[in-house]
Write the structure tokens for this entry.
Amino acid sequence: MKLLIEMFPIALMLASPLIITALGGLFSERSGVVNVALDGCMQIGGFTAATVLVLLSAAGVKNGIWWAILAAILASTLFVSIHAFSAIHMRADQTISGTALNVLAGGLTIYLCEILFNAKSTASFNNGDVFSRVSVPLLKDIPLIGKLFFTSNYPFTYMAYVLVVVVWFLMYKTSFGLRLRSCGEFPQASASMGVSVVKYRWIGVLLSGAFAGLGGAALVLSTQTYFNVGSIHGLGFVAIATLIFGQWNPWGILGAGILFGFSQTLSFYVSSIPFLSHIPSELVNMFPYVLTIVVIVLFSGRQVGPKASGEIYDPSKR
Amino acid sequence: MDYAIEMLNITKDFPGIRANDNITLQVERNTIHALLGENGAGKSTLMSILFGLYQPTSGTIKVNGQEVKITDPNIANDLGIGMVHQHFKLIDNFTVTENIILGKEPKTKFGTVDLKNAEKRVAELSEQYGLKVDPKAKISDIGVGMQQRVEILKMLYRDSDILIFDEPTAVLTPQEINELMDIMRNLIKEGKTILLITHKLKEIKAVADTFTVLRKGRYIGTRKVADVTEEEMAEMMVGRAVSFTTEKKEATPGEVVLEIRNLNVKDVKGLPAVKDFSLSVRAGEIVGLAGIDGNGQTELVYALTGLVKPESGSVILKGTDITNMSIREHYKRGLSHVPEDRHKHGLILDFQLRENFVIHDYDMEPYVKGGILQNDEIDRQSVRLIEEFDVRSGEGKDSLTRSMSGGNQQKAIIAREVDRSADLLLVVQPTRGLDVGAIESVHSRIVQERDKGRAVFLVSLELDEIMNLSDRIAVIHDGELTGIIERKDATENELGLMMSGALRKESKQA
Amino acid sequence: MKKYSSRTISLLAVLLGLLLASLLLLVTGKNPLDMFSALLCSLTGFDLSAPQKGFNLMYPLNWLLNCLPVMLTGLSVAFAYRTGMFNIGGEGQFIVGSLAASAVALFVPLPPVIHPIVCVIAGGLAGACWAFLPGMLKALRNINEVVICIMMNYIALYFNSWVVRTFLPVDQKTLARTIQFPASASFAQLNFGTSSKFHFGFLIVIVCLALYWFIIEKTSFGFSLRATGFNKEGARYAGMSTNTNTILSMMIAGAFTGIAGAIVTLGVYSYGRIFTTFDNYGFDGISVALIGACKTSGIIFGGLLIGLLKAAGTTLQLLGISKEIAQLIQACILIFIAIQYGIVVVLNKIDGRRKESATKS
């Protein structure tokens, strides 16, 4: 139990980038565009955040971390607009377009690292004291839940909580959410009701880029000291799995994200868990990816995903 | 004259084709005006122009006497024009109210969607126009009739004065059609104007005041309904005298070819779709299955062809139980299947026509030897079928199937399936989307096959087609057989009641 | 609208990709001409920056060497694509192919010539096994293969490292690879006295290309695979066993990539590798297949092109240009191929304008 309480903040820290990115994926898929480029967006976000932070601290700016996060969001949004353009206007195969962006992100970040830092990674950054652990007054006093979810966690964890609530509100309580969801279910119906499918799909994809950029920044800033080619190590795809396991629903994503967060935490704690300690480290490292497959297989039967997601929208088709 | 809509001298060119050629349509206010024409006559193009989906190449549109430019559907909505689409544009997992308010949502003072108020408004509207709906129900949980009423309410919620009904009766029972006619008359009383797009003459006769006929993209004429007989309408529509009944001799049924025993099938959602269904079809007869869309026909056909495994019961073809055999085994044992959806099943659209002719037999002699395709044999077969069945396409056997017209695609399927000389011909919706000429040829082919001694099982949503071709008529409602009657004893009214489940006829069959 | 052949579109995409990369080089203060000279050098064997050195066969040989694995992974992606699947699991299949080949090379004593062939077969089988799961899940549960394939890639990365460290004889000096393979297991070099590592494994690639063409275009099996790829429901209606097709096609695709892994390990390294990151051959295969529109001749062209980009990487680095530029060019080409509908529209507009001006004058 003590170990569990110790593991919780770490698990939540690792879960936050997944949750944030998956929420982004939610916007995109609910609007009808599959975004397999979430991984690339996270790379762009992580790279931008690390670079801006390094450059700002070199220039003597304090608390550059917030600028770094902002820059990550902007860069990733700009980056994903390529996918939005090709998927919405160019009738592109969304998987190919997304894959192209993933390849592009991998090449571009390292290319820019070589230009800027003359190395295959960014220089190391110091994320300062902004990222000390905090507890939430009042909420932390709720028995058990307060101890696990609201005591001495990292700021990104709270950010993820807040975003879950915000996204849920937007999706299910506002006309924006109603319209966006309609575009992912039956775009011809939306169009016949005067809802601009193109506009809502653009918003959906851009938001997915913004969120994934934030997710990438969260991952790199809170768990690493520099950005390199392995920084994201496929977590963008784990975020897609989080979205599927979360049944395209913000609360589901929260739960799924925490589960995947835990699966990654294991590698840190495996030596202190008695019955796991003799398992080779490679197999422990493999675990999150195996778990992802298992979870997708278990939860694939129910078809709750947006019906028109991934389909090319052709306004003349009736 | 007080016109609600005037479309004057409209011409619309698409690359290589003139879809509308100098068409004029004038709809008088507060009347029901029918737009009549075959598939491909240019009706949908004209309506798409009115609705702002296409821009006309030339011509003018006036709404309420004012000349207007309609560049997108929003403008049409603002002008008070609303369309009740043939294929409903409803979102399955939204509620009735959410579907109605989409795009024009009432807000609370916090900026959220005010569902409470919206539901109240929907209830009021449904009261006012006599359109019974449940504002809180999910679309996936309600029937076709109510879905259509939701479509109409969408327009009324937006205060549309001019309502376009696009083939609205395709999915309704005769009784529901009567109800719809009442609703339409009601709407006229409330001051609306209706434009009814259809190819069904009876409906025009029953409800419309005036009608305009299009043929092959051209304007043929506008008449008062009261002045014209149905035969004259048909002649205007097709361009020659047509009879909609196919010539055929009395059937001489032989032994039982297909026997369905107590079949139970579930749909994709896992709900029972076919319930304890039993029926037999004999050699040399056509048995028609009548029913409204979504009453288990699709699942029944899937179970008969092996596309879906039934829960229980059996399908017996010429004395062999084929229930649990593979799809391919069904074909080998003597089944031919003209499927409902020629694009989803039926054809591989990205294949050449020649490849589509052998999609069942591609790995059997003579088309394959030692695993290697024999292209000469495939070509020979294709050329033969193209000639015999008059399948027309740009590049003959090498045409990309996608590039062919719907009628010729259907002819290709019929050619392939009929040529396989099976004992049972299962024909589902064989004439959907075809023009009268093509319909005639498909129908006479089906009768020919019967006369050759084949058993034909025809599943169709078009009651006219069933009445025209069948020797016996079976009716399905909610997955259950509600009766089997001889064609000569059948009346449309009785069939309609059976289709809606209100009437059951004990099967006289052993 | 006029149609354009996939060849025209691919060529345009390649040109646009090169153009964009040149722009990027300019913006970041590099000379795009250096890039082209590096490409030319690999292509012709003449180093333009040092013309006095004259023709050097090593460059073209290295180019062809780089083509071998990407042609195979290209075949792999194309084979799956023709059956309607996106094989993005090449990285994993490549790694297990390398692993299986290493195990056979180290543990199964065989005479030369036979030994590498058996290693390659083992690699192919391993790749096929690795691709079985995504294929099966797609066929039976309709689970999107993309996420599963990516997860399988990472699993392969750790799996390989575990197996090599636990079961294979590790080189005690570096601890980062196995001991050297016996001489019998390696492919004979075919370097014409240069320092290139070009080897007889190219024969296997040619066999694979021929096999791909034959299966897809000539056999009834290929017929049903293509039908399944175009319209799975339609193929099922026709009586084809689409589930088996899906799984088999994914496994054959995996085999091609597994063979690629084997060939690289046997031909270039001659020892069992512990991968710390992906080689990217699997992703290269996506570019090759799409540039080649999944046709045999197209895959040869795409393979030659991507191989060229990879081969030029080393020369580029000497000129102070990051070899990631090759990856950037690939990404740009992919994007342009993805938006080919837009390219066709633009081409039509240009065509229309040309005709208009022609009729006016």
